[in-house]
Specification:
52% of the residues lie in helices and 26% in strands. The chain is α+β, with helices and mostly antiparallel strands. The protein starts with a strand and ends with a helix.
């Protein structure tokens, strides 16, 4: 692994690195995260690999990544694609719907219990009246 660019960006609290890695096949983003975490002694969760570029016929790949100071800094600075934002919004809506359905089911079950109790009380009153 040969580092070609290593810049500290204090505004975004990250280290911007670019390096050339040798591999027989295209490395995955997760493999590169692990390799960067080992080499720079940082946590994998605070690393964002955003580019792996290779040349045809060559076994060297240019990898671009950001190493953040913490996971929170990564969350603040990372930009989500429109598709990712839609997926997050849809997941939140689905969670809200299931929560509302659970509340309705609980309310219906509670109402059924009350309805079931009333006839039993009416029968007790009838037996007392006789």
């Amino acid at each position: 692994m040969k580092t070609t660019k290593d810049i500290k960006n204090s505004l975004l609290k990250r280290q911007e690195i670019s390096f050339i890695s040798e591999a027989d096949k295209n490395p995955s983003f997760d493999e590169m995260k692990k390799k960067i975490a080992e080499d720079f002694k940082k946590k994998e969760e605070a690393i964002d690999v955003y580019g792996i570029k290779g040349s045809f016929g060559s076994d060297s790949f240019k990898v671009d990544a950001y190493i953040y100071d913490s996971k929170e800094d990564l969350g603040k600075a990372r930009q989500l694609t429109q598709k990712q934002r839609k997926e997050i919004k849809k997941a939140a809506e689905d969670a809200k719907k299931t929560e509302e359905e659970a509340k309705k089911a609980a309310a219906a079950a509670k109402a059924e219990v009350k309805v079931a109790e009333k006839p039993a009380e009416d029968k007790k009153e009838e037996t007392k009246a006789e």
